[in-house]
């Protein structure tokens, strides 16, 4: 874990220098995103094959070359992998390409939608998808592709949105869950409406098993026997669920919409809705194991929602506490959730 702590310290130092030297906020955000992105690329490109539970499995498949190991529904990943194999890229070069792909997508996403790219990358490491990207390669690439769908949601371009998400499903079929987020472009949340939506979503998720089984009982046919193994208790970190649930609510309460322009309000509303979906799926993970994997597609919203909320706060004391919370709480979750978990990145080592 030492390398991650060193990385965070270096990020803070680099951000402090950029804040001192670059007064233009837009240019500073770009410089910070690129600088932190380069470090993340090196972290992923230089890691040993043992870092990440599934990394070695992917490299074994990569060595099979043109073998149709992942062909079929996930034909997109097969083409991606085969392209670099035919270019005679080594295993380490392939890991570097995957890292570069992910970094490019997230850096572009943060520059375009985040008002504080330092916090976006910090959250990406601590409560985001950076750890998972060093293990679950196919799904990580699928999630990266869905980041481009935000553009078309905001533009209300349904056709291109469907194309982007469709491409993502060719890397990992679970990406189809992202189709549902398009509806949030048409919901104009204010504080009260979002609070009501949040309560309804959390209630539905918390009592999903009971609601589902009650609905089955209303049917004239007994379908319950077909779903006896559908709901199973799974091991879930309660802190992860709690933070996921609180993020959209706290951002809704503290965001000062008067300090946003029209575009920022639209982005904020979209991120609110997607963040709420993330919380909902995190709760569902208690009973439905696959919900945990599906929740990853909604996690990206928090990486822009939290920084953008903090940037709207003008009261100095409130903003100071918000900044402290944005650093301490995600770091605390990272410290207690990463060591020994199933992702397998805590024992980081370089490939040499």
Describe this structure in words.
There is one protein chain. With 352 residues, this protein is mostly helical. It has one domain. Helix content is 66%, strand content 0%. It contains 17 helices and no strands. It has helices spanning 2-21, 25-45, 55-63, 75-86, 91-113, 117-126, 130-133, 137-147, 149-154, 158-169, 191-206, 208-217, 238-254, 262-284, 290-295, 302-312, 316-337.
Q: How big a fraction of the residues is strand?
A: under 5%
Q: How many distinct folded domains?
A: 1
Query: What's the total count of β strands?
Result: 0
Alpha plus pi helix count: 17
**Biggest pleated sheet:** none
Element order: H for helix, E for strand: HHHHHHHHHHHHHHHHH
Derived from helix and strand composition plus strand pairing, the structural class reads mainly alpha
Shape: globular
Give the end-to-end Cα distance, rounded to a whole number of Å. Answer: 18 Å
Mean pLDDT: 83
Radius of gyration: 21 Å
Helix content bin: 55-70%
Poorly predicted segments = 221-230
Which terms would index this structure?
352 residues; mainly alpha; 17 helices; globular
Task: Reconstruct the topology from this structure.
Elements: H1 2-21, H2 25-45, H3 55-63, H4 75-86, H5 91-113, H6 117-126, H7 130-133, H8 137-147, H9 149-154, H10 158-169, H11 191-206, H12 208-217, H13 238-254, H14 262-284, H15 290-295, H16 302-312, H17 316-337
Helix pairs in contact: 1-2, 2-5, 5-8, 6-16, 6-17, 8-10, 11-13, 11-14, 13-14, 13-16, 14-16, 16-17
Question: Brief overview, please?
Answer:
Helix content is 66%, strand content 0%. By secondary structure, the protein is mostly helical.
